[in-house]
């Protein structure tokens, strides 16, 4: 009679895989705990702040950052950043609107001047800081004078009517040629300043520019636009310039 072969029993070792994974995780945990114990407090707080910033953006509720249902511990900081962001957006919009406003103003000025005899004696340029209006001496003052004649007042009215209601600040600058002033003024500095003041007073007195929105500058013969070696060049250099400054600079900040 043959003996039946006994079947060898094999131990099931499937449990080793999850066990090894668990041990690996525990080892990793202890390594992290050990590392945290060695990190200085300042560095740890820095890391914590960074992680808080990252996770605080996971959810928002009424503009307030939250993690899950918990409130962001740095909520005041987040509110400040949100406020700054909104202000930057508003400034960018305001800057674009002002650019359009000044572009339209230049167009209106040029259109008004085209129908007058002084069109060739007035230049209107839109630059990065605002509108620059240059008035030639041909339509302003007699040689060595800062007095406004009726014709000068008429010419200034054509330009100044477009200034009413503007919120921007104005600068009125006076210039002369390089010939010395031998009349009623001590120097070209005084003459250029007197001309700027005369133009400024006319605009203020006629309600075209508010007195708290304007200032004057005097350059005498400095910053010429043409050569002073010819009569034509000197005539170009004897001028008054009006600058309408932008309220919003390129960086969005108010001027």
Automatic annotation (TrEMBL):
Topology within the bilayer: Single-pass membrane protein
Localisation per UniProt entry: Cell membrane
UniProt keyword annotations, A-Z: Cell membrane, Coiled coil, Membrane, Transmembrane, Transmembrane helix
Main location: membrane
Sections of the chain in a coiled coil: 78-115
Entry-linked InterPro entries: Bact_OuterMem_StrucFunc, MotB-like_N_dom, OmpA-like, OmpA-like_sf
GO CC aspect terms: plasma membrane
Stretches assigned to the OmpA-like domain: 128-248
Entry similarity comment: Belongs to the MotB family.
PANTHER family xref list: LIPOPROTEIN YIAD-RELATED (PTHR30329:SF21), STATOR ELEMENT OF FLAGELLAR MOTOR COMPLEX (PTHR30329)
Protein name per Swiss-Prot or TrEMBL: OmpA-like domain-containing protein
Species this protein is from: Enterococcus columbae DSM 7374 = ATCC 51263
